[in-house]
Structure formats: C-alpha cells, structure tokens
C-alpha cells in the first residue's frame, strides 16, 4: 500500500491568485496522477506526472493553468493558477500501487478549494 | 474513448435492504474494473475490483461481477447498513489506449436510513 499526505486539506482563495497543492508519498512511485472532483460530479484526470519529464495533460487542461512539478519519486505539486470561482473543487493526487496492487490507485485525502 | 456510466443517485434505502448500483462501461481491449467508495469526510478508497471477464470482486459484503457480454459491473449488497452511506464510483483502467489512469463514472450517492 501507499500512504499519501496531501496539503493543504482546504483553502479559501481570492480570484486571480494561485494555490499550490503538495503531495507526499511514503514510497517511491513512477507515476502520480492529479484529479479534480467538481461539486456533485465525478473525478476527472487533470494530468499524469512522471519524475524527470513534463507532465502529460488531459484534454481540456493546460500547463499554464495547472503547472505541475515532480522533483523526485516521492513528491509532486499541482498549482492552480489565476483562480476563478469555477476552479472551486476538490483536488486529489493519487499513485498506483506496486506489485500485486499495481492496478490499484491510492488517493490522498484531497484539497478542497473555494474561490471567492 | 473509454467511459463509465453509473445509475444516477441519490439512492435512499432502509437498513437491511438490498442494494444494486448499476454500472456499464465502454472500452476497447480488456479493462480492469473497480468500485471505489468515498465516505463522508474521507478520501477515496478501493472497495473491490475485477480484472477479467466473469471475475467477481467482493469486499465488506459488496459484490460485483465483470460481465463482458453486457459490459457491466453492477455493485450489489444483500443487506445495507447505515455505515454504508457514501458515494460509490465505478471505474476502469487498462483498456486499449489507456495508460493506466482511471476513468470514473459520475458517482452514486447512497443514503441508508435506520
């Protein structure tokens, strides 16, 4: 299994500012995923972050809005830039398990972002 | 592209009632199928999974069978408890063209009343 520490757990931000979310894993993982869960909706993958290379973004998400860092195999950050009320969501990082659990995703507890 | 469709909620049941939450999927190749659960105030966690056709995943009294012929993975429980109140997500991964990320359904909220 993997234990994921994500912070902050929640934040309230002003329009036009940015928020950086941190994700720390207790083991080395190749791929980390960033998801968004908008109110009352399902999870949508934002991007996949591999260590040592640029993140791969899903359709509808761009690096200028959601820059991601992946400096090592246990850590990643997601920044939500130029915030607007439409960015109010829960943001989650996740990692794949290893070995027999390699198809299982482990999730952080999420960051609830409210934009005023 | 790959997709997952769940029955709309909320689903409200009395304790000890039978639960079914429908899930169907569209995918090329041979995806693995999952049910994740999100309890109030907690993070998402895996409930059960099935990796090939006719597999049955089970956990905590919940079951789901991978039906390739109907592209379905319906979640069932014979007798729900108040503590089962949560949001349930059906998901898939591993289909052709899928790099291992999860594709989620829209989630179904279950509320169990005493």
Short description:
The complex is a heterodimer of chains A (116) and B (114). With 116 residues, chain A is mainly β.
Radius of gyration of chain B: 14 Å
> Can you write the helix and strand succession of chain A as a string?
EEEEEEEEEEE
Beta percentage of chain B is over 45%
| Mean pLDDT, all residues of chain B | 91
Number of helices of chain A: 0
The helix/strand class of chain A is: mainly beta
Protein described:
The complex is a heterodimer of chains A (116) and B (114). By secondary structure, chain A is an all-beta fold. Chain A has strands at 4-7, 10-13, 19-25, 31-37, 43-50, 56-57, 68-72, 75-80, 89-96, 105-107, 111-115. In chain A, a hairpin with a 5-residue loop joins strand 5 and strand 6. The mean pLDDT of chain A is 91. With 114 residues, chain B is mainly β. In chain B, strands 2, 5, 6, 10, 11 and 12 form a six-stranded mixed β-sheet that branches. A four-stranded antiparallel β-sheet of chain B has the order 3-9-8-7, with no helix packed on it. Chain B is globular and about 45 Å long. Chain B starts with a strand and ends with a strand. The model of chain B has no long low-confidence stretch (mean pLDDT 91). Chains A and B meet through strand 5 and strand 9 of A and strand 6 and strand 11 of B.
């Amino acid at each position: 299994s993997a234990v994921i520490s994500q912070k902050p757990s929640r934040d309230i931000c002003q329009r036009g500012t940015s928020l950086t979310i941190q994700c720390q894993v207790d083991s080395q993982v190749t791929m980390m995923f960033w998801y968004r869960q908008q109110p009352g909706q399902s999870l949508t993958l934002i991007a996949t972050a591999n260590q040592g290379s640029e993140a791969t973004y899903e359709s509808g998400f761009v690096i200028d809005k959601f820059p991601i860092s992946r400096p090592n195999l246990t850590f990643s950050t997601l920044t939500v830039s130029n915030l607007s009320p439409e960015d109010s969501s829960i943001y989650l990082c996740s990692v794949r398990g290893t070995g027999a659990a390699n198809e299982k995703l482990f999730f952080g507890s999420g960051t609830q972002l409210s934009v005023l | 592209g790959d997709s997952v469709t769940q029955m709309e909620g909320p689903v409200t049941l009395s304790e000890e009632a039978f639960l079914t939450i429908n899930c169907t999927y569209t995918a090329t190749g041979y995806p693995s199928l999952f049910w994740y659960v999100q309890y109030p105030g907690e993070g998402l966690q895996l409930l059960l999974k099935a990796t090939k056709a006719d597999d049955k995943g089970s956990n905590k009294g919940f079951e789901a069978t991978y039906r390739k012929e109907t592209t379905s993975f319906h979640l069932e429980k014979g007798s729900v408890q108040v503590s089962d109140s949560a949001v349930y997500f059906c998901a898939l991964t591993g289909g052709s063209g899928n790099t291992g990320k999860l594709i989620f359904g829209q989630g179904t909220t279950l509320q169990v009343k005493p």
